[in-house]
Each structure stands twice: as structure tokens, then as C-alpha cells.
Fold this sequence. Notes:
It is a single chain. By secondary structure, the chain is α/β, with parallel strands linked by helices. It has one domain: NAD(P)-binding Rossmann-like Domain (Rossmann fold), CATH 3.40.50. It is 39% helix and 18% strand. It contains six helices and nine strands, in the order βαββαβαβαββαβαβ. It has helices at residues 16-27, 57-71, 94-122, 145-164, 190-194, 205-216; strands spanning 7-11, 31-36, 47-51, 76-79, 125-130, 170-177, 180-181, 203-204, 225-228. The strands form two sheets. Strands 3-2-1-4-5-6-9 form a seven-stranded parallel beta sheet, sandwiched between helices. Strands 7-8 form a two-stranded parallel ribbon. Strand 7 (180-181), helix 5 and strand 8 form a beta-alpha-beta unit. Helix 2 (57-71) runs parallel beside helix 3 and helix 3 (94-122) packs parallel to helix 4 (145-164). The mean pLDDT is 94. Pfam families: adh_short_C2 (PF13561). Keywords: Oxidoreductase. GO terms for molecular function: oxidoreductase activity. It comes from Paraburkholderia atlantica. This is NAD(P)-dependent dehydrogenase (Short-subunit alcohol dehydrogenase family).
Amino acid sequence: MSQSPKVIVVTGASQGIGAETVKAFRKLGHNVVATSRSIKPSDDPNLVTVAGDIADPATARRVIDTAVARFGRVDTLVNNAGIFVAKPFTQYTAEDYATITGINLAGFFHITQLAIAEMEKHERGHVVSITTTLVDHAIDGVPSVLASLTKGGLAAATRSLAIEYAKRGIRANAVSPGIIKSPMHAPETHAALGALHPVGHMGEMSDIVNAIVYLDSAPFVTGEILHVDGGQSAGH
Length: 236
């Protein structure tokens, strides 16, 4: 168990990277509040789940209020919830735009604002967000304008938050993944997707979780966009 348990909030926590992040922080002995639309109740007294749409401000309020009521504070927020829709730019619909910006941007904004307000009370905290390496390195054949528009916004906001709160004990960082083996990608696509990386294969969910855990344990690191992308952002 960790010497000093933290209170960690994880969004998009019912499957994939989010679920693995919850497991990793619990293994380290931290208390976790996990949220997603479909998350199930928890039998673990140190893991509380809150079901809801992260794009809804009311969900953000319930998550943060639950963390404070159950564990007394919020130490770390992991903004993992996100959606990626690969379509040619002119084929995105108004519904696509509303859904993607709702989850990727509003979902970040509302809960981060509330979490930082709690962190300020204790003069310490950390926000780590998940972006995408497509922000820095677009790939021919992988249409990603709305991903870049929204996740690129998170990368820029991460740097701004880091500077705004640097002297208040609150850090902000991001992890920028390549294409990761997760429930999002069918096994038959793995070879083709792996070939899009200079290292020749996809990443594992553990690669991203390890990066999140590292950033959370690195008090001198803030404003960092940590690329975990098999070399994609470096070039071809």
C-alpha cells in the first residue's frame, strides 16, 4: 500500500484504459472515485462509482461531491473519458459534433473546474488528461479533425492550467497516446494499426496507465504532454 493514500477521480472508468487506471491506483493503495455512463456499483469500500454522462455538469458535480463526502478531498483527477469518431471532415453531422465536443471538451471543463476548486482548498493537486498523438501527427487515412480540435484543446488547456496554478501547488499534465490495444479496436485490425507506428506495433493499455502513474508521482513535472505513441510524434 502507498505510504500516503490519495483520492483519485477517474472518468471514462468502466472499461479500457480507464478501468485499468482504476485498478492501478487501487493496487497502490489509493482511494478512487470512478465514473462513466455504464459503470457498475463497487463492493470495494475504497472504490466508489458514480454513473452518469460526463458531458452533463450535474454528473461532474455528483462525482466531486461524492469524492469529498466519502474521502474528504480530491488529490488527482484523471480526465480519461473521450470519444473518437473517424469520418471525412465533410461527413461529420451536427450530432457527431455535439457528442464529441460534449464528452471531450465539456466533459473536461466541468469536472476539472470543480476538482481544482477542491484542490485549492488544500493547496495541492494534480490533473492529468488523455489526449491523442494525432494532435501533433495527423495520419493519412485516419480522418481526425474533430479529435484534433477537441483533444488539441485539452493539450493547450493543460499547459495553461499548469502555469496558472503552478504557485498554488496544483500540477497539470497530459498523456498523448498512439493507437492502443483496447476494446475500441477489434483484434483483426491490430496488424494494420500497429504498422502506423515507427516501432511497428500498437501500444498496450499498461503503457498509458504507467505514464499516468508516473506523472502523478512526479512533483517537479507540470505542463508536460507525455507522448506514449511508439514514435509517431517524432516522425516517420
